[in-house]
Amino acid sequence: MTIEATAPPVPDFPMRRGCPFDPPPQYGPMREDGPAFRVRLPDTTIAWVVPRYDDVRRLLVDPRISSDRTRPGYPFLTEDSRYLSKVRVFVGMDPPEHGPHRRMFIPGFTARRIKALRPAIEENVTQRLAELAAGPRPADLVTALALPVPTLAIAQLLGVPDEDYTRFAALTGGLMTENPPRELFDELLAFVRALVSAKCAEPGDDMLGRIAAEQVATGAMSVHELVVMALLLLFAGYETTANMIALGTLTLLQHPEQLAELRADPSLMPAAVDEMLRYLSIAELATCRTAVADIDLGEGVVIRAGEGVIPLGASANRDPAAFERPDEFDIHRTERHHLAFGYGPHQCIGANLARLELEIVFTSLIRDFPGLRLAVPFGELRFKRDANLFGVHELPVTW
Amino acid sequence: MRVSVDTGRCVGAAQCSRVEPELFDQDDDEGVVLLLTPHPPASLQAGARTAADICPVRAITIEEPTAGFESASSGPGHHPTSDSHVHCQ
Ligand code: HEM
Ligand code: SF4
User: CB A111 to CB B15 under 8 A?
Assistant: First the structure.
């Protein structure tokens, strides 16, 4: 018998969820069986996945892994991600190059800047909820609330002028439909190009304006790079937050006692939002890497230089070695170390903006709609099972 | 307890200032971490440890004056970081 014949078959990856609230069922046994496993990606290349909390966290700060999409071996999960890799932005850079590029954007995300967005986000949520209340029942919470909230937040962040907002919202919303037409993407690209050109011509005191004045004007960054970065911020911050709003609402509806507690005491909301992020871990496939040197994970497992590595944040966030009763949704958890925003130098730059949006949305929604409930049986909900960012297509609710 | 921050490493994720705003702030222009005092009072020490544990680039180092801590810069009792210093006085 040859060694090949006895080797276990290499499973396909991404693995898919069974219960929409839980990571793929294979993760639990993998955590027990070893530090890393080979999987077959959609393009048939073989890469490693890493299931345990300690290993995931250690790897994501390890200088021996790279986010550089141009390195051979980088594990692409879709053709779209391969397409995006052709432009050099900090998401795909490694230290020490990554830091200075990321730092151009950090001033736009400081606690003070984010706090300054609160009134606009709150006003938007209030308006959306008023429209929802006045409209027909049942209603789809995804189109009524989950998409409009991050649309406005990102428009504010990018400094989209008020008169262009309706068009911006139509373009981004259109891209969230299933199989959006290609022209819509081109239109959005043209929109963002025009926006960036305007910022370069007349830099205001917003994030893009400041980068235009300090980086583009001095030649440190090209107009094209800034356009790509603006698009990336849009893509990174839009569907992620929207999916969390819809799935987070669903999670609360499934846990009516905790929902009642949150309604009675909104000061519990920040911790509840972090628990939703941990429990749902919708974006774990964002952390794809390539090993640039051999990495010995112990137990006889060595990842070789040039091999793809995908640390599984959703698995780490359910690791009993890191969280007590990891599969329970519990808003009273005090641990703060979940990895839903990643870890290491690429940890989500928009984490505190996303948290703010989620806190405002859930607080207002459960306050204003005490009778909120699903309008269809749970089994009829359509989840984004094949997408690399988990979510729900529609959330029909009534009240 | 002595706290230090490596602003060269900081990626401005503002996890620390969210956990313990009375100890960590952010530079308005650069967005990197600002340590308000290297010697936090007892009331801020638990927050300092949590911040050191969750900082995604381990830019926060904590030195504990007393022996007996397994992992000085860790949060709720796990994950000693390689760059944490535990020493006796
Ligand atoms: C709940 C919502 C969100 C989730 C779950 C999420 C998740 C993540 C994760 C897991 C990463 C790490 C990727 C990696 O390690 O390569 C990441 C990075 C990033 N996120 Fe988010 N994100 C969210 C919201 C946002 C928002 C609102 C923005 C901005 C408007 C944003 C912008 C970014 C950017 C630019 C990066 C790349 C950072 C770097 O490479 O240094 N995200 N996000
Ligand atoms: S948590 Fe770490 S990386 Fe983030 S702001 Fe604080 S010191 Fe910097």
Answer: no
Q: What is the dihedral of CA A328, A330, A333, A335, to 10 degrees?
A: 40
Q: How many domains does chain B have?
A: 1
A205-257 tens-digit pLDDT: 888 999 999 889 998 889 998 999 999 999 999 999 999 999 999 999 999 99
Closest alpha carbon within chain B to A100: B11
CATH number at residue B43: 3.30.70.20
Pair of tokens at residue A124: 């938007």
pTM of the model: 0.92
| Topology (CATH) of A27-394 | Cytochrome p450 (1.10.630)
- Structural domain containing residue B43: 2-88
Contact of A310 with A339, CB cutoff 8 Å:
no
3-class secondary structure per residue, B29-76 = CCCCEEECCCCCCHHHHHHHHHHHHHCCCCCEEEEECCCCCCCCCCCC
CA–CA dist A367, A262 (Å, integer): 9
Q: Is B10 in the pocket of ligand 2 (CB under 6 A)?
A: yes
Q: What is the DSSP string of A307-346?
A: -EEEE-HHHHTT-TTTSSSTTS--TT-------TT--STT
Size of interface A-B (CB pairs under 8 A): 77
Q: How many residues does chain A have?
A: 399
Identify which of A359, A214, A114 has the alpha carbon closest to the alpha carbon of residue B28: A114
